Amino acid sequence: xxxxxxxxxxxxxxxxxxxxxxxxxxxxxxxxxxxxxxxxxxxxxxxxxxxxxxxxxxxxxxxxxxxxxxxxxxxxxxxxxxxxxxxxxxxxxxxxx
Length: 97
Fold this sequence. Notes:
Layout: H1 2-22, H2 29-40, H3 58-63, H4 65-82, H5 85-89
Helix pairs in contact: 1-2
């Protein structure tokens, strides 16, 4: 239980830190969240096999499917926050038909 809480806290901290890194680059927060997720996932930091530092296996990721679904919901809301209706109405931003 402690390693799950530690992994979750590292995930939240990684997401927050990545948004700080990406803000000067004028990239959306969603990009930072996705890169943080890849870094702490079982294929980057999880390969090190250190308990509590990232997710060490896909089983540990699957155990947190509810939290993962909620996080995806927040990411979807933040994507929607990036869109501005005034930008979408401009003729130069419309796709070609």
